[in-house]
Each structure stands twice: as structure tokens, then as C-alpha cells.
Description:
The complex is a heterodimer.
Chain A (H helix, E strand, L loop, with lengths): L1 E4 L5 H25 L4 H13 L2 H26 L7 H16 L11 H30 L3 H21 L34 H18 L1 H11 L1 H6 L4 H28 L10 H11 L4 H25 L4 H20 L2 E4 L2
Antiparallel strand pairs in A: 1-2
Helix pairs in contact in A: 1-13, 2-3, 2-12, 3-7, 3-10, 3-11, 3-12, 4-5, 4-6, 4-10, 4-11, 5-6, 5-10, 7-8, 7-12, 8-10, 11-12, 11-13, 12-13
Chain B lengths: L5 E12 L2 E12 L3 E5 L6 H9 L6 E6 L2 E2 L5 H7 L1 E4 L11 H6 L12 H15 L14 H14 L4 E5 L7 H16 L3 E6 L2 H7 L2 E6 L2 E7 L5 H9 L17 E9 L11 E6 L3 E5 L6 H9 L6 E6 L2 E2 L12 E4 L3 H5 L6 H5 L10 E2 L2 E2 L1 H14 L16 H13 L11 E5 L7 H16 L3 E5 L3 H7 L2 E6 L2 E2 L3 E2 L5 H8 L4
Parallel strand pairs in B: 3-8, 3-9, 6-7, 7-8, 13-20, 13-21, 16-19, 19-20
Antiparallel strand pairs in B: 1-2, 1-4, 4-5, 9-10, 11-12, 11-14, 14-15, 17-18, 21-22, 21-23
Amino acid sequence: MRVEKRLQPSPAALALASLGAIVFTLVVSSVLVLVAGAPVGRTYALLLQGAFGSLFAWSETLTRAVPLLLTGLSAAVAFRARLFNIGAEGQLYAGALAAIAVGGLHGGSGFAAPTWLLFPAMLIAAALAGAALLLGPTLLKARLGVDEVVTTLLLNFIVLLFVSAMLDGPMKDPGAMGWPQSVALQPELELSRLVQGTRLHSGLAIALMLAAAVWALLRHTVAGFDIRAVGANARAAAFAGVPVTRTLVLVALLSGGLAGLAGAVEVAGRTSYVTLDMSPGYGYSGIVIAMLAGLHPLGVAAAAVFVAGVLVGADSMSRAIGVPTYLADVIVAVSLLSVLVATLAAQYRLRLR
Amino acid sequence: MAGPEPVLRLSGITKRFGALLANDAVSLQLGAGEVLALLGENGAGKSTLVSILFGHYVADAGAIEVFGRALPSGQPKASLAAGIGMVHQHFTLADNLSVLDNVMVGTEPLWQPFSRRRRARDKLAVVAARFGLPVDADARVGSLSVGERQRVEILKALYRGARILILDEPTAVLTPQESEALFATLGQMVAQGLSILFISHKLGEVLRVSDRVAVLRAGKLVAEAPALGTSQAQLAQWMVGQAVAPPTRRPTRNAGDVVCAIDHVSTPTGVRDRLDAVSLQLRAGEIVAIAGVSGNGQVALAELLCGVRRAGAGTVLLDGRPLAAEPARMVERGVARVPEDRHGVGVIGDLPVWENAVSERLRTRTFSRGSVVRRAAARRHAARVIEVFDVRGGGLLASARSLSGGNMQKLILGRALLAPEGENVPLRLIVAHQPTWGLDIGAVAYVQRQLIAARDAGAAVLLISDDLDEVMTLGDRIAVMHHGRLTEAREAQGWTREGIGLAMAGAA
């Protein structure tokens, strides 16, 4: 038996491989469900119901999907240019902190500026905070070849410690009785509800518009071409006249900005405060979502809803049946691994001698 | 000459890759002490056949016998043990190790506690003496010349007891004089009982060196003939399937004004492939061909004129104004660039053909309005490029990497030479770096015709090529590059082949 690489990608092989990925994911998670001692069919039914089974379920799923969409876009834009931004988590927190810094109820009143000025200022500040964090590692990579995976990853820890210091110090909520959370956001700056009685906020609209904007940028603009060219082959791109370093800086601004916005939208839409646990790894999940979507901005939206559904559904399922919510993490992780393996496997063919 | 029993017999070798029939029932024999040349264009199936011999691929049908014994398929170790040795076109040597280390590597089992260097050194000395390939066993390979490195590659095969030697395009990297030395070596090896399979596309050498010639075309063996009595034209016809007309060059008109003046340019030291006080003038309506073995500064010169490398000292003027190292400005200054590495630099492989066709012009008003790309206009121009330059492949939307070498080169040429409708920036300078490398005869002729046409339209053409025939056919003036220095660019009639060869080696 030998393994031979195919000359032409075969759509049949890809479809078969993707199917195999789904089946494999289901098998692995089913094994875990059995180990937890629960009936497999009912578990999945509860999961689906908890994710998409009612208006309330949908609202929870979509609420959860918003930060994932934004961090997913952040990763997709960066990875398209082969700038491997692993720092979305820190950029998210930095954005959240910046949003509170601009729009928080400091001294009970906050900045005395009209809402129509303060709201965009808050979002811009958040985007700039995230972008600033990614700019340093990007320039280090462009000029000195420093690995951005390392620098962005390690910056996350620095940022989190900084946030912790802020939450315990200058930005501490005076009325929280010692609980480390920031001052609250001015109520006028909070995002409105899309569906009354649920947590679903207009951050979803913002996120979807940004996804469309990123898609349009990549497809229809010179900058988008530059980004894709630098990611595909930086040397050939430079030969064709693409300004490589300038493009990487643009990518850093976009990617960091999107992650920073994720933080601001979470604060303005869901939490109203910055706390240390406001992000259960959204920054990292964004990477998974971007990869699942094949780095396509519109695919990111679908993948974000999928992952959010799994997370929300697992929460609800675990309350009903007792299977730990970590099942959700397993499903997401295994589906990513199997999709990657499936894409690779579709390029090869097994030959029996 | 050929002995009674063939040392190597291939019978009916067939190999398919999907829909592509790479080898179609090929049957060949190699006699003892014979030199057989295997000819064919790119894609004819030579590499596949040899890879099957070597065990990299398994043939779908057919059998191989080496010295009368069947060769197990798909096992490189079996091929080595049977006495087949191969010298690749791109050497597999470790520059930081000595000659002895390179020859020894892989010959001792991993679990052997100590390396038997003295024994290996003695064996190497015996082999080198027997075949007339003197080497310094302790020299660092990185410091050797290309001809010497090839000798080490050959020794590697001989050290392992090869009795059938396969040489893949061995003279591609050698000067004429080094090629002569290689041919003498081949003679000596044959006298010592070796049989040689010689893969090449250089028709003149093939007829000089080999006893018999076998020609592959589209996977089939189309001709087998003794070298004596066969002409180059006959070989070319077998390779292509029809008579090939070499490009006719009309005699030079008087060259026009100086388009590009390179004055005492040096590039910084420490970088491989540098220029050392190079001066050259390129005039409108003439082709200046730069001969030389690759690695003597050609890359530096090409990159300098393509705007990808800065001069450390000296000036480069284009139409009287300095030429800056800014690739983005090249199109508006009328410079058309054909880089050496078409896969890695010439196109962006993952992007579709149409985006590659306009990649250099995207920032112009024709193809973008502000920041937004004019997709329709870009696609129209790309379609024109594909049509005018006969780029065949999957169409506008196929990824550039899916194009064959010849079609990729035509795409690059079309991108560089075809001006969009409505624009009339005249082409002033064309920089073509190894434009026909690795292309089949038809594509080579096409590219050469395009360069001549551009010259006739009034552009200055700089052609850098390590193919001496091409240099002598196309060059109106010829200069030779060696160790970063450029000879004076003399009229083509002022050079002889030997003279160029000597200049390539730094003598004369």
C-alpha cells in the first residue's frame, strides 16, 4: 500500500473527506457522552434544542456568536496575510478597557459629551487599542523577522495583567464591594436590544456589517489584493510592486482593530463592565472559527454561529442531563482537527499495490 | 562499444498520473559500456522514466531487468543495490561538510558505533584514481567550483558501486571548458566498464558524447538511432514531431539612443551574487545578451534593473533619470521585467490568472479608481493577454500555479509586454532573466520571437541567459559575466564560442 499525492484536487474526495470529518467528530463526542453515562441521542437532541430550538435559544446563540464573529474576522484578515495573530484575546481586553476608559461612568458622570460623539469615539478607541497591540509585533516581524506567534501570544498575558491592575486600581468600580470589575459603561452608550426580552443586541448588526465590509475589502479593493498577495507570496508581491511592510501594517490595524471592537461590543452589548473573566477565550476561538471558515469573511459568520450554537447548546444540555459542558470544547476542537485533516487527506490517494 | 547482453532492459514501462499518460509502453536497452542519450522536451516523460528506474515511482505496467535480474519496483534501496547510480541536475550536497563526509553520508548503518573514516578515505582515493576524478577529500564542498561539485556528485554514485550511471542534464551548469572535462571523464568511466544514461536537451552535446540516442515524445519512445549519422535537425524534429524553424533574426539596424546607462555599479559585499564595478549601456533597438554560468552576478544585475535591489555604489540611469529600487514605478517608466524564477517570483501562484495578469498595473488609473479595483477592465485586459500570448490552461479564474511552465512564462511575458488599450507608455527596456529556462522547444521559439519583436519595436532588451546558443543567436552585442565583473559588450561577430567560454571561466 502506498500513499500518492493527487495531481488534481477531486471534489468527490473533498466531499467524502468532509463527511468523514463530521462523522469522526460525532463518533468522538459520542464516546465521551457514553463515558459520562448519558444517552447519546437525547444528548444531541438537547444540544440542538438548546442552540436552535426556540427564539430564546437562537437569541442566546447569536449573542454568543457576536464576539466570535469579530475575533474570527480578526484572525481571518491576519491569517490571509500570513500574519499569525494569536493575540486577539489581549486585543479584545484592551478594546474593552479602552471602551470603558472613553465611555465609563467615571466619577459617576463620565465624559460630558453628546452620545452621538461619544459612541463612535468609544468604538474607535477600542479599535485603536487593539490595533496598537498588534502593531509592535507586526513591525518586529517585518523588520527583524521576529516570530509574531510568540510575540502576540505573550502579549496576551501582559495585557491581562495590565487589565487586572486597572480593575483593582484606577478603573475599579467603587460600588462593587471589592469585586474586581471596572466602572460601568454610561447607560446611553449601551447597545440596544434587537429582540426585546432577550440578550441579543445590535452588536450583531455591527458584526455582520463588518463581515460584509471585510469581504468587500478583500475582493474589490487594491488593499485587499495587496493583503492576499502578501499572504500568498510576499516575494512575488514585492516584485509586482505591492508595498509589503505597509500592507502588513494595514493588516495589523484591521486585525487588531476588529479584536478590540469585539471587546467594546461585548462591554456595550452584554456586560456593561470589564471583568477578568468576560472572555472565555474568544480570542483563541476566533482562530478556530477562521480556520473552519477557510479564512473567508462570510464563512466566518457561519462558523461563528456554528461554534456559538455548540457552546450554548452544550450549556443548556448539561443543565438538563449532566454531561459536562466541556463536551462543547471537544466538539469544536475535534471538528477543527478533522476538517484540517480531511482537507489534507483529500489531496492524497491510497494505492493498493 | 555495446556488449552482447544489455546491462539494463526496460520493457513496456507504462505510468499514468490520473489522466496524464507519462510513460506509454516505453522499452529501452542499455548495453554494457554504452553511452545512451535520452532526449525529450519537458513533459515528455524522461524524469518519470528515470524515477521509476530509481524506485521513486511504481510503474503501472512493464518490467525492468538490471544485469539480467528483475528489479523490484518502488524500492530505491533495491535500485542502489543493483548498481544504479544517479547524478541529479540539482546537486544534493551539504555545503558545510567536507567532500569525504558528503561521499560517506548514508553509507554506514545508524547503529554502527564508530565511523570508519580511514577506510572510507582509502576507498574514495581508489575510486577517484580509477575514474580519473581527482578531489581533495577534506575540502569543504561550499568552497568548490560547480565543476568540482559535480565531480563529487559523480563520486558519490561511484563510491556506492554504481555500474550504471544516470546523468540528468549534467552540462546545464558548466562552462564549455568544464563540459569538455566532463566528456573526457565519461570516456574514462566507460573504459572502466560503466554504462551511462545521459539525459539532455542540448542536441549538439548529445551527438558528440553518446553512442545511441533515444527520443521520448508525449510519453512514447518515438525514435532510437545511433548518434553517428543523425543530425541535430533530425533530433529536433523527433522531439517536437514536426520541423522546427529557429527564430530568424534580421540583421541589426543601427541601435538608437542609450536607454539605460549602468555606470560602475557595485552591490554591497557579503551578499551572494554581487556586482563589482559593472558598466553597461543599453541602446534602443538592440539586444544585449549577458552570457555566464549562473551564480556570477546575473541575479544581482537582473534584480538591479527590476528595481528589487539597490546599488551600493555607482549609478543606474533610465532615459537620463535615476532608476530607483521601486518595483511599483517600473510600469510607468516603461520597463518590462521577466524574472528568473517564474513560480516563486513571476506569478503569485495561489491567485487566479487574471489577477496575475494585471498585478503590476493595479495601481494605475486604468485598473483602479481610487482604492477600488475595476474588475471588469482588469478581466478584459487579462483576457486579451491570454489570447494574444496564447496562454493555455484553466482560463482566467484558474490559479496561476496550475499553468504549465511554458504557459506561465507566456503569461508573464504578456503581462510585461502588452499595454492596456488606451495606454501608450512606450516600452523602453525589457529585462529578461533566463526567459527560456526549462521550456520546450515550441515555447522557447515563441519567447525568443517576442524578444526580437520587442527589439524591432524600439525597446532596449537585456537578455541574461546561461544557454550559450541562445546568447549567440539573439545577442546583437554580447558581454560575459564572471565573479561579479562584466566584460565589455562587443558586437556578436567579435566573439567566438571559445572566447565566450574562456571569459565565462574568468580567463582571457
